[in-house]
Design brief:
Helix 5 crosses helix 6. The strands form 3 sheets. The protein has a 7-stranded mixed β-sheet with strand order 2-1-3-4-9-8-7, with helices on both faces. It has a 4-stranded parallel β-sheet with strand order 12-11-10-13, sandwiched between helices. The protein has about 350 residues and is an alpha/beta fold. Helices cover about 35% and strands about 25% of the residues. The chain is elongated.
Length: about 350
């Protein structure tokens, strides 16, 4: 939010590891964001784009309705790195071939390379990598060369050095690829050329300024649980707009002992934030009585939270904005193929109920 420096965009094709990719980029001191693979190109062009990473995903490029980016993404003039499925779609869309691997892989493999590619600078040969795939590139697109291989995957690393398009069949973002951080650092620093350091301090100051710019003196209602997500959101907004922020804390009867009192003490007495506490224990426990299915419980909890926030908003007056803090993992785990490419792991009450 509010950051105008160079950005590495992670296009999400349904990978549960997309958040890890973005984290690894940020650990390199470079700002990154995650957007769905089908984000309109016009929105992408508004970013100060330094490079794009295609995530992995559960799909096959051969299946009907396989997630594909706008083909014009290759005309943006920035480097692209494909990871796993991202490598396969990059190869196929640029004229190569992808076929089922002779052996499906899930686990550790040994990568060998003897190229002078910038992507692999400082990476040992052999080096351990983590594979998780059923398909793989069987024929390179025009202009590409093989940069690294494993016993089962002759095109484990591919690249078009002139266009700065690269692909790795393994997952450099996971700890099971010990030198994966070197590969990601090479991509963002040496290939994308990002030398402007980004830190969380930058993010905080830019976020506060952006909140001021968006809210413009209006009132904001914030759903506050006391957890990290909503607490950070509340404090950032309070720094930006002060008493125009009103937080609602709902005691659902499922909290740890003493937690409601701690939330009140911290946010009222320490941060001096307008806090409205709602005792809804009876409503939640009544609604959950006899329900044993975890997913159904989460849906009930989410829907009740929404009802209560709507009631509180009407009671407290007119609000122009609703604030909510949600981590990338919660969003990724909650969205199914109908609302995004990821397979649903479980619903979260703070992701739309």
């Amino acid at each position: 939010m509010g950051y105008n420096g160079p950005v590495i965009l992670v296009l999400d094709f349904g990978a549960q590891y997309s958040k890890l990719i973005a984290r690894r980029v940020r650990e390199c001191g470079v700002y990154s964001i995650i957007l769905p693979y089908n984000t309109p190109l016009e929105k992408i062009k508004k970013l100060n784009l330094a490079g794009v990473i295609f995530s992995g995903g559960p799909a096959s490029v051969h299946q009907p309705g396989a997630p594909l980016p706008d083909k014009e993404v290759f005309q943006l003039g920035v480097p692209i790195l494909g990871i796993c499925y991202g490598t396969q779609l990059l190869a196929q869309m640029l004229g190569g071939k992808v076929e089922p691997a002779q052996y499906k892989e899930y686990g550790v493999a040994s990568l060998n390379h003897n190229s002078n590619s910038t992507l692999l600078k400082g990476v040992s040969s052999p080096t351990q990598v983590w594979m998780s795939h059923g398909d793989q590139v069987s024929q390179l697109p025009p202009g590409f060369s093989a940069l690294g291989s494993t016993e089962n995957c002759p095109y484990a690393v591919i690249g078009n050095e002139e266009k700065k398009f690269y692909g790795v069949q393994f997952h450099p973002e996971v700890v099971h690829t010990p030198e994966g951080s070197v590969i990601i650092s090479n991509f963002v620093h040496k290939i994308c050329g990002v030398n402007t350091p980004w830190t969380m301090e930058n993010f905080i100051s830019h976020s506060i300024n952006k909140i001021k710019e968006i809210v413009k003196g209006e009132k904001v209602l914030c759903a506050l649980s006391g957890g990290v997500d909503s607490s950070v959101t509340a404090v950032l907004i309070h720094k930006a707009i002060g008493n125009n922020l009103h937080c609602v804390f709902v005691d659902n009867g499922l909290l740890r002992k003493g937690e409601p009192e701690m939330v009140e003490r911290v946010f009222r007495n320490h941060f001096h934030i307008n806090l409205h506490c709602v005792d809804a224990k009876k409503r939640f426990l009544t609604a959950l009585k006899g329900v044993t299915d975890p997913e159904q419980k989460r849906k009930i909890i989410g829907n009740l939270f929404i009802e209560i926030f709507e009631e509180e908003a009407k009671r407290l007056g007119n609000f122009s904005f609703l604030a909510q803090g949600t981590l990338y993992p919660d969003v990724i785990e909650s969205i199914s193929a109908t609302g995004g490419p990821s397979s649903t792991i479980k619903s979260h009450h703070n992701v739309g109920g």
